[in-house]
Design a protein that fits this description.
By secondary structure, the protein is an alpha/beta fold. The chain folds into two domains: about 150 residues, Rossmann fold (3-Layer(aba) Sandwich); about 180 residues, Dehydroquinate synthase-like, alpha domain (Up-down Bundle). Helix content is about 50%, strand content about 15%. The protein is built from 17 helices and eleven strands. α5 runs parallel beside α10, α8 packs across α12 and α12 crosses α15. The radius of gyration is 20 Å and the shape is globular.
């Protein structure tokens, strides 16, 4: 897999500097931000979409596919590059569209959220949803280039930073080492801190992807830390991905302790760090959302459909031994369900 070129920009780049014939597919919400709207007007070929999981449904795919086909046929050229500007759902959708349109056309990602800038824009995964289940159809199709544009990322409200915390904490705990030492005493995170940390967060993901680009060796599976229950909560409760992963990490840490994968001392030390104490959701709040999701009756069904399933009644689960030391263990679904649903995670 050819790695993407990562390009940081302090200002908006000219449309013509991105590609000879750029075709932009962007989140229409960005039109509400004056500076971005002015920049978007410099792209003659563009399609606006409504971001969110509905965009990744087949009905949306066919509609946008036909719109793109009509648009590019008017240009009279085959040498165009598709650019996806938006958050994770836009990136997943445009990536998949680019991978299958005309058997594959050049792709550029411009993430507009911290979550997509940190995680989903990188590594080449694309996805559509099927029947209410996330990311059941997809391809590996890395972008040629990924632009991290400061005025776009800094235009987000602070709650977008909070929604990125799950993936940020995941990366820090998986990497450990100097990244953990640098951040473990942070008790808050703002846009400027995150911008400065972005190269290290991205670098870790590419370190893993390079070792296992197509998820054949099990190494890339570590990136699913916090995602087993994260995806269940995201689908069941319709909460943002990053928020769901934040809860999922708390559940994974509690399960790591229960299974004695992490020692009590390491677990306690981890929870005493300002980063975990202040930015990761508590055990009590995780209990509440799990119970809420269980009331909808979808936890077991979602787990069985999860791509991390290891068989009919088993799931591969990412535990944590210590910062920088994840461990994948195959466990029965019932053990995971019992741990979560029978309130072994509960208020003291």
């Amino acid at each position: 897999m050819q790695p993407s070129k990562i390009i940081f920009k302090n200002q908006f780049p000219k449309a013509t500097s991105l590609a000879q014939t750029p075709v932009l597919i962007f989140d229409k919400h960005l039109l509400t931000i004056p500076a971005i709207k002015t920049w978007l007007e410099t792209f003659p070929l563009k399609i606006s979409v409504t971001a969110g999981e509905e965009l990744k449904q087949f009905s949306s795919f066919e509609k946008i596919f036909l719109e793109l086909l009509n648009l590019v046929e008017k240009t009279g050229t085959k040498n165009f590059t598709l650019i996806g500007l938006g958050g994770g759902s836009v990136g997943d959708f445009v990536g998949f569209l680019s991978s299958v349109f005309k058997r594959g056309i050049p792709l550029i990602h411009i993430p507009s959220t911290w979550l997509s800038a940190i995680d989903s824009s990188h590594g080449g995964k694309t996805a559509l949803n099927v029947g209410g289940y996330k990311n059941q159809i997809g391809t590996f199709y890395p972008a040629q280039s990924i632009y991290l544009i400061k005025p776009i990322l800094f235009s987000q409200p602070e709650e977008r930073t909070e929604e990125a915390l799950g993936e940020i904490i995941k990366t820090i705990l998986l990497e450990g080492n100097s990244l953990w030492e640098k951040t473990k005493n942070w008790k808050s995170l703002n846009s400027q801190k995150l911008w400065s940390l972005l190269p290290e967060l991205i670098s870790y993901k590419y370190k893993i992807v390079k070792k296992d680009p197509f998820e054949k060796k099990g190494i890339r599976f570590f990136l699913n830390f916090g995602h087993t229950f994260g995806h269940v909560l995201e689908s069941s409760l319709k909460i943002p991905h990053g928020i769901a992963v934040n809860y999922g990490i708390r559940i994974a840490l509690e399960f790591s302790l229960q299974k004695r994968v992490i020692t009590k001392k390491r677990f306690d030390d981890l929870n005493k760090s300002l980063l975990i104490k202040n930015l990761l959701f508590s055990k009590e709040s995780a209990c509440k959302v799990i119970n809420e999701a269980n009331q909808f009756g979808g936890i077991k069904k979602q787990l069985l459909q999860d791509k991390k399933a290891a068989g009919k009644n088993q799931v591969n689960f990412v535990f944590l031994i210590a910062p920088g030391k994840p461990k994948v263990i195959t466990i029965p679904n019932e053990a995971l369900l019992k741990f979560a649903i029978s309130q072994e995670i509960k208020e003291n």
